[in-house]
Amino acid sequence: MSTVDAPTSHLRENPYDIAREQLQRVATTFDIDANLVNVLGECKKSVEVSVPVGMDDGSTRVFKGYRVTHNVARGPSKGGIRYHADVTRDEIKALAMLMTWKCALMGIPFGGAKGGVVVDPKQLSRSELERMTRRYTSEIINEIGPEKDIPAPDVGTDASVMAWIFDTYSMNKGHSVLGVVTGKPLAIGGSLGREEATARSALYSIRDAAAKQDRSVAGMRVAVQGFGQVGSYLALFLHQEGAIVTAVSDSTTALYNAKGIDVPAAFAHKREFRTLAGLRDAEAITNEELILLDVDVLAPCALEQVITGENADRVRASIVCEGANAPVTPAADAILEDKGVLILPDVLANAGGVVVSYFEWVQGLQEYFWKESEVNAKLNDIVSRAFEETWETARARDVSMRVAAYGVAVQRVAEATITRGIYP
Ligand code: GLU
């Protein structure tokens, strides 16, 4: 028997430890009661399930799945489902906690949750993916629901996965339940603008930050890491605004062109071939080189922990826009802050996804659907207001945008918890 090296996870540090450390830091800065911090540092519920799936070749594989609710003080819990080979329970807990802060910062009536299955979805056939999704949904069916916990897409899942979750839940209830999941296809109650929403909030955050610095997005040089639902649309929107996107990447390929990547061509190429590999008029670089490029804006839009204590001092961007959740570790945060780099934190910059998920949930409950222009205008209002609150708090308290954003959010959750009281 030969030994095969297990691929190393992108998670070099424990994400839940990081999330709790950040909460503690914010609690100290904003003087939050220690008893409350004890409550907010834990997840309300964490469910682990095994997901047996009959594979196309006749074998049976068993995948491990999770659904975690961090907090419901401000409303039902909300958060995506991630399919990735490196998923761990602590990663899902950390991401659930982030969702609580994100929803609170946006002022939408949700708590935080996250789910995940330890699987590389690219290795499954479409029918295997469907069977796995339906079985995972069945295993967590008592945890989710429109008034309880509402999943959505995250890394490795998309609208068709949401359609299977919607259908499985609805078949079990005996009628269609539009509000059980968001990020659904338009044909079955999705919202216009949901697919692009996460990238839009990143764009709005960059635009608002540029305005504060008397700069404009037009002419800015940008590197975008990740070319999935967030990175691909962000690159496209920035290109449309006149920015020069000098580098893009996906999980296999990173590409550079000093004069600017032809983003519409990259977008079309990725749609057609599912990879950036083979795109013309660009030079291959490494993912690490992309992170360290001399650009105005660096937008990590893939996974966690890509900017760390090891590479942060060599980052040359003046703005880091977190399209992904937790792409910057606390050690990197400190280094970037010292260098005067402006970080637009995840809970602000990528919150557009959950904001339009909220709109989708509302539209589904009312069975009344909005125009795309209405969705985008309301999204812009919410994100720009949150940007302004974060900016003002950062100035008033002389703290980073991250500490300010988490601070505003944690205070809101704390207030809801105190107002409700601890049961019984
Ligand atoms: N997975 C996305 C996030 O991390 C969206 C969650 C949602 O729409 O509920 O914000």
Structure keywords:
alpha/beta; about 15% strand; globular; 2 domains; about 425 residues; binds glutamic acid; 13 strands; 7-stranded mixed β-sheet; Rossmann fold
Mean pLDDT: 97
How large is the count of helical segments? 14
Radius of gyration (Å): 21 Å
What CATH calls the topology of the largest domain is: Rossmann fold
Major beta-sheet overview: 7 strands, mixed
Q: What is the overall silhouette?
A: globular
The domain tally reads: 2
Low-confidence stretches: none
CATH class of the largest domain: Alpha Beta
**How far is the first residue's CA from the last residue's CA?**
58 Å
Report the helical percentage.
Answer: 40-55%
Tell me the CATH superfamily of the largest domain.
NAD(P)-binding Rossmann-like Domain
* Total count of strands: 13
The fraction of residues in strands falls at: 15-25%
**How are strands sequenced across the largest beta sheet?**
10-9-8-7-11-12-13
Write down the secondary-structure element order: HHEEEEHEHEHHEHEEHEHEEHEHHHH
